[in-house]
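job 3f2a | input accepted
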Amino acid sequence: MLGTMKLIAQVKLQPEPGQTELLRRTLETANAAANDVSEVAWDTQTFRQYDLHHVCYYDVRARFELSAQMVVRTIAKVADAYKLDRKTRRTFHPHGSIAYDKRILAWKLAAQTVSIWTVGGRQTIPFVAGERQLALLPFMQGEADLVYRRGAFYLHQVCEVDEPPAAEVDDFLGVDLGIVNIATDSDGTGHSSRAVNNVRHRHRRLRARLQSKGTKSARRRLKQLAGKERRFATHTNHTISRRIVTAAQDTGRGIALEDLSGIRDRVTVRRAQRATLHSWSFFQLRAFVEYKARLAGVPVVAVDPRNTSRTCPTCGHIDKRNRPSQATFSCVSCGFSGQADHIAAINIGRRGAVSCPNVSDTPLMA
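job 3f2a | predicted structure (366 res):
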């Protein structure tokens, strides 16, 4: 039986100048209403959506330029914000994202336009998207978020696609994750982190200089740089994860990954290495591998990473001395030697072969 998977299709809206102002006003009005609802929720300790609706609905309709359904979605947004905890009053940025459902948003895929509710009434706005996003949109399900980012408006639409059953496999492609090499697989293919780390170090130095300068032009430059490093690292993780999944799929294998939960708390590094460790996107790369593998029907298992880089794949001897340096492996028992990350990946793949295939339920991202 086929399962389903939720993915996000992101499209960019192309509003006219007047429509841009209406979209901005809609965000500001809806978030002002959300702050008002949050104040009531906090003062009365009323956090459930059903209860908040009865307390706030008519007052919000009277005070703000919002349609009935937008008020419903705004109250839901506040209730969702308090689900994490109820220890702090929630506040909302004037340009924070807001949710749309099919009553206030209609997609016209053939024309590549959307009919979207604003405080100035319904507006028909064209959008642009890549091939992958356009292929996802026919499977849209549920709400879409209107997002304002760096002067542009985007819609993030939830789509539900069929997930093929995981193939039955006898062998696993082991993947070792690291700081020097982002990922190395048991076939010996490595993915260096040099480019990512160079970008991070360059941006770190540049941010420090601009922050110390503190001029208006420096602040403007800092704003331009915001998110550039993150986007580059995300693109790199997408590329690496796609190559790993393709290698496993083409050879009829599953994928074995290290379970690195809590790695930042367990690993001790020198002060100079802390920034590199804490900017290392373990979770994102693993999540990308997992959702791409699920789409390809490739099983993924998480294995215990302990001693994977100290175990000899030939004789099984475990010893700290098997790692004379960060990059090399040399067994003190049988003399077998090789590149340390490759050896670790081989051991991870073997552990995957004796583990029960189980695709992680890590939240997905597109």
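job 3f2a | The mean pLDDT is 87.
job 3f2a | closed
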